[in-house]
Predict the structure of BOS complex subunit TMEM147.
Amino acid sequence: MTMFHFFNCAILTFGPHAVYYSATPLSEYDTLGTSIKAALVYLGTALVKLVCLATFLQVSENDGFDPYQELLKALIGFIDVAGLYFALTQLTHRNISQNHKFQAVGLGWAFADSVLHRLAPLWVGARGLEFTWDYILQGLEANANLVLSISLAALGSLIWLRKNKPKTLIPIIYACAGIVATMPSITSYLRRGLGWHFPKVVGFELFTSLVMAFISWQLFSACQRPST
């Protein structure tokens, strides 16, 4: 029963990445190499973030919300944006379109994040004798992160790769990218500052991911239209 619970949670956490790859044109254009490269860039970015967090952050004695520490975390979190910029602009990709490139990069980015942050807790905790909803919620959180990662990659591709953007949309693109990039700090404030419980935070992440995905899709579609 414990292994059954583990496999269910693992499928919920990692399955949507495989489904997204196989159900979209990414599999037809063989973009797996691009996703793997993006995942490796994420791992390098995570290592740099870990060193920065260990160097600049102080160990807190309580679990309360510290505005200064959270601001520092948010600034360090923008290293992810730098890593995403490198993955989108500096890596060599196959002859794939901009549409497929940002999806492949976002998919690899999200999968690496799930493996790094959720695989070990799943293996240790989900096989326990006592049933808990926490690991199912972590799987749902991984799904939200998948959507947010692809949305951020789409917005990043508009910022760095799309040159002929409508000028009226540029502030909206940057604002949406800033919101998605600071989501870890926003959810941290909800948990520690406002005292939200984990299910409520996950619900917020799922809702926000769907909203940002819709906005990103609309912005990407608007920038694809020929200018008049």
